[in-house]
Amino acid sequence: MQKDELVRWLSGQDDYISGAELSRIFKVSRSAVWKQIERLREDGYEIDAVSNRGYRLRGRPDHVDQAGLNELQRQMRPTLSLEQVVFAESADSTNAMARRALEQDGIRSGLYVAARQTAGRGRRGRQWQSDHADGLWFSLLLRPDLPPAALAATTLLAGLATVEGIHEVSGIRLGIKWPNDLLDPVSRKKVCGILSEVVIEDQSAALIIGIGLNLHTTEFPEDLREIAISLFQIKAQRQHPLQLLQAILTALARRLPRLAQPDQWLPDYLSNCLTIGQPVQVSYSDGRVLQGIARGLDHGGELLVEDEQGHTWTVRSGEVSIRGQSSPS
Ligand code: BTN
Predict the structure, then answer these.
(1) Checking phi first, is residue 68 left (phi over 0); if not, alpha (psi -120 to 50) or beta?
(2) 252 CA distance to ligand 1 centroid (A)?
(3) DSSP letter (8 states) at residue 310
(4) pLDDT band at residue 152 using 50, 70 and 90 as cut-offs
(5) Which residues lie closer than 8 Å to 115 by C-beta, 6 or more apart?
């Protein structure tokens, strides 16, 4: 009897389920059931045990583990079918885990979550500090049935879905700094970063969406203090990472099939976007800098910036900061 099988049975019950019944279901002794219940308690599951009635699941651990992910995989199946779900206490980077699963094991869809990352990666080759367990670090591997050209917009869609998932679970509505940094709209500090990678293989494309969410950090290192914030610092309340994960994945699964029809999601993206209407500075990798006002997005989700001469530039890439604010990394 696997721990997650037992969790599944307990979750499916509204009332107590007796040890005798569980031992019948799993064809193991009652003391084996009891031992497994004890192990689940050690993992952080709250399970009531009442004589003559049996066991009842009252609460789940407030951290992600493999059993929790297996249960999430099962519950998500009707909306998002995932071939593989993997939890690691420590990983180099969940984006790297997803890429290895794709390239070495031929996995078509998967979810990779790590309690800590030793080589967390940010956009533009930066490092993402995640060698502690106060955040939610995960990557989703998918092979959407869409032309590679349409996939460029995933980065925006992932930002929107993440805003929606976080809002549903925590009540906190973050704002999007184009393309997909999620900021606390009050302090304008960064709560969540997204690193999307498109891997082109033969005729098809795979997509890796890596999401890093600052959950419970109470103190950031000196170099991040002015630019980073956690959900806990916004609202002094611990969040349930598995619930957040499920809500974000559900929002993504709902949004992704419409990726190629921007009129179905760009208006929602725009209404959550903090960049539009603001003075911005775009720094290109070759050193060029463009200053202007962010006027809107075109149909492909590219940023339209009007410079002082009244000329409008289409910005596809480049580091965009809202002028007058320190730029979150
Ligand atoms: C950024 O804003 O620069 C993007 C940060 C993305 C961080 C996440 S954490 C999970 C996944 N694994 C990584 O190595 N990076 C992404």
Answers:
(1) alpha
(2) 17
(3) S
(4) confident
(5) 63, 64, 87, 88, 89, 90, 133, 137
Domains of the chain, CATH where assigned: 3-59 (1.10.10.10), 66-272 (3.30.930.10), 279-322 (2.30.30.100)
User: 119 CA distance to ligand 1 centroid (A)?
Assistant: 10
> What number does the ligand 1 atom closest to the CA of 95 have?
12
- Lining residues, ligand 1, CB within 6 Å: 93-95, 117, 120-123, 126, 128, 130, 137-139, 181, 193-195, 210-212
CA distances from 311 to 281, 293, 294, 296, 303 (A): 15, 11, 12, 14, 13
The CA distance from 216 to 163, in Å, is: 17
For every residue of 168-228, DSSP letters joined together read HHH----EEETTTEEE-TTT--EEEEEEEEEEEETTEEEEEEEEEEE-S-S---TTTTTTB
Q: What is the DSSP string of 129-155?
A: ---SSSEEEEEEEE--SS-GGGGGGHH
195 alpha carbon to ligand 1 midpoint, in Å? 5
Taking the CA atoms of residue 236, residue 242, residue 244 and residue 250 in that order, the dihedral angle to the nearest 10 degrees is -170
Q: Per residue in 201-223, pLDDT tens? A: 777 789 999 999 999 999 999 99
Rounded to the nearest angstrom, the distance between the alpha carbon of 193 and the centre of ligand 1 is 6
Query: What mean pLDDT comes out for the span 21-45?
Result: 92
Top mutation candidate among 100, 116, 137 for ligand 1, by most atoms within 8 Å of CB: 137
Q: How far is the CA of 130 from the centre of ligand 1 (A)?
A: 9
Strands (DSSP E) found in the chain: 46-50, 54-59, 84-91, 110-117, 135-142, 175-177, 181-183, 190-201, 204-214, 279-283, 289-297, 303-306, 312-315, 319-322
